[in-house]
Specification:
alpha+beta, 5-stranded mixed sheet, 55% helix
Length: 656
């Protein structure tokens, strides 16, 4: 009697030929729990990864569908081939895998046409996946896809592929499938779904085993290399040993460069490799490699370049940054002869970069500790009026001779909004200042003490250093200012310089002088950045007793009205007072110097007396005016406002 697919029951399956041994054993079938299947899925995904597990389950499902199609063909007298095909739908439900609900089915057996669409309700595969993993980005009913493809392909006699387009395993409300023959799918179906039936299931397990073995080998070699590199850091052997160990392990050339792409250490045949040259001529590379370089520099990624032959190189370097405290301190390059990026090399270069970072951090910490100690020692020398013997001994032990002439330099960044403890920009700017100072001292063969405290940088510059470079103290300050401006064009750096300190006991006084030079300079010298205490003039005697604001207020009380009148009228009354006193109140001599008539000179003096109550015949008034003019001179008001270039450059400078 012919049978229809929707009439099959479990009784039909288990009641067939009871005399022929157990049904399940006879047909090489078994019953398994859904939870056990879920555990298998979990282990497969964890061991193989989701993509490899997917291919395994697709092929396994295909073989199950194919086997059951052949089994059911032998067991039942089907009404027609269509019913045999639809028997796969019934088997889904009887086996407990899912309830398959076709909503649109077209089967033309004669022309081998097949197209079906429907839903898999209560998919055990999706439910088990969600018990062990979060929702996936793609459908996860791989076995059901494979089973439907295998069953329908076998019963139709033509390749049929099922694809799940919605799935509860990826957060959809239901599992929605579409099945078609290959010619109906066209380009819509991906190649892996077409070819999954062609390989043996064991191949995937074999590949997985090889992959695990390779990962195990990488792990062993990685651990060995990490231990070797760690020992190098612990034994303080340096970057040369790191490059040598990495190069021997990978059998490649190794170049370790600084942050400016200049080589620090190298190992092996590096073919005159120059990372700096590559960066400088990156426009000669293909756009893809140019983009990689930008990614490496700005996003700190590991890259491999593939087009260096245009620059005359025939290798393919693998490059990764060395990062310390979120700053790039250099780069490691593996010099390769192949475009293939080995997983081993990628893993090892990043481990080596971490070890280099640890080495650099240790070196930096040691240097910073030493510099901090020396800076604290300098602070003691600068701040203490009387030095005890312990401080002088420490300085002597460190190889510094402060009993020869020195100048105190103070470098201050003018920006009250900066937090000197936290602001990274200010920290970097101060680092540049200190590095320039160390460079100059090293070139002169001099030791130097530098302190970075109180929101500023301070140092002692020996007279020998200035003589070696044939600089005046102001020229040195200007040179440092220019170097800082190269790195930080918007820098608001100002520099205060003391008078010469003949020995260590004069350094404290020199520190006070440099501070006062800055305080005076900051008030009115907006276009000047280097201030010398020696340029302040006689008024410097008062600086320890009065603060600069008080002195300026005193001068403004006497001369402020004249100052404003000169600005408005161009009357040159302050200029007249200045040179009248400088010429010992000699009317004729001052008139000749200013190119005035005697009458014009008398008119100006009368105007001062009548308009501003400045009687230059009164000795007390003369002393007050002289003091006020000296204060204005120290603050730079006279040079920028009242004197022509010839007078300001010669006479005024001489008077100071």
């Amino acid at each position: 009697m012919a049978i229809k697919a929707n009439t099959i029951t479990l009784g039909d399956l288990f009641g067939m030929n009871p005399e022929n041994d157990n049904f399940l054993q006879a047909h090489r079938m078994f019953i398994s729990s859904a939870d056990a299947w879920g555990a298998l899925i979990k282990d497969l995904i964890l061991a193989l990864g989701i993509e490899r597990a997917k291919r395994f389950l697709l092929r396994y499902g295909y073989q199950c569908g194919r086997h059951e199609a052949l089994m059911l063909k032998e067991m039942f007298n089907w009404e027609n081939i269509r019913e045999w095909i639809m028997g796969g739908v019934t088997m889904h439900g009887l086996s407990g895998r899912t309830t398959s609900v076709p909503v649109n089915v077209h089967i033309d057996v004669e022309n081998q046409e097949f197209e079906a669409e429907g839903y898999w309700n209560n998919s055990y595969e999706a439910q088990q996946y969600l018990q062990h993993f979060p929702t996936h980005s793609e459908p996860v009913c791989y076995f059901l896809e494979g089973y439907a493809s295998g069953y329908c392909s076998t019963s139709l006699g033509k390749k049929v592929v099922f694809k799940e387009v919605e799935c509860i395993g990826k957060g959809d409300p239901h599992c929605h499938f579409i099945g078609k023959t290959l010619d109906l799918w066209g380009d819509e179906i991906s190649p892996e779904l077409v070819d999954y039936a062609r390989e043996d299931i064991g191949d995937e397990l074999d590949q997985a085993h090889k992959r695990i073995e390779k990962q195990s080998e990488i792990l062993k070699r990685g651990n060995l290399l990490s231990n070797q590199l760690t020992q190098i850091v612990l034994q303080e052997k340096g970057l040369d040993s790191i490059a040598q160990t990495l190069g021997r392990s990978l059998k490649c050339g190794i170049v370790i460069s600084n942050k400016d792409f200049e080589p620090l250490s190298q190992y092996g045949d590096v073919f005159e490799y120059s990372l700096k040259r590559i960066i400088e001529k990156k426009e000669n590379l293909d756009p893809s490699d140019q983009k990689k370089i930008i990614e490496m520099i700005h996003h700190r990624t590991t890259i491999q370049l593939n087009t260096l032959d245009k620059q005359g190189f025939f290798h393919y370097p693998l490059i990764t940054p060395i990062i310390v405290r979120n700053h790039v301190y250099g780069y490691i390059s593996i010099i390769k002869n192949s475009k293939e990026m080995d997983e081993l090399e990628s893993s090892f270069i990043e481990r080596a970069a971490n070890i280099c970072a640890l080495h650099i951090l240790n070196e930096k910490t040691a240097i910073d500790t030493e510099l901090k100690m020396k800076g604290e020692l300098l602070d003691e020398v600068l701040l203490q009026p009387k030095l005890d013997s312990n401080i002088t001994k420490k300085i002597s032990f460190l190889g510094y001779n402060l009993n020869k002439p020195h100048y105190v330099f103070i470098f201050r960044l003018q920006n009250p909004s900066f937090d000197f403890q936290k602001d990274e920009l200010v920290h970097d700017e101060k680092e540049v200042i200190m590095n320039v100072l160390r460079k100059y001292s090293a070139n002169a063969g001099e030791n130097i003490l530098i302190s970075n405290s109180f929101g500023q940088v301070q140092t002692l510059i020996s007279e020998d250093l200035l003589k070696t470079n044939n600089w005046s103290e102001k020229e040195l300050g200007t040179s440092i200012l220019k170097e800082v401006k190269k790195e930080f064009p918007s820098s608001q750096l100002i520099i205060g310089i003391s008078n010469i300190c003949l020995n260590i006991n004069g350094v404290h006084e020199g520190y006070k002088q440099a501070k006062k030079a800055l305080e005076i300079g900051q008030i009115n010298n907006e276009n000047q950045h280097v201030f010398q205490f020696s340029a302040i003039g006689p008024i410097s005697i008062l600086l320890d007793a009065r603060n600069p604001q008080e002195l300026e207020a005193y001068a403004d009380h006497i001369l402020g009205a004249i100052y404003q009148y000169d600005i408005q009228k161009s009357a040159e009354l302050l200029k007249t007072l200045y040179f009248y006193l400088n010429n010992e109140c000699n009317l004729h001599k001052t008139a000749r110097f200013l190119n005035l008539s005697i009458g014009g000179m008398r008119y100006r003096l009368a105007n001062l007396k009548e308009r501003f109550n400045i009687d230059m015949m009164n000795s007390t008034t003369r002393r007050e005016v002289q003091m006020a003019l000296d204060i204005y001179t120290a603050f730079g008001k006279l040079s920028t406002l009242l004197f022509n270039q010839e007078v300001a450059g010669i006479e005024y400078q001489d008077l100071r």
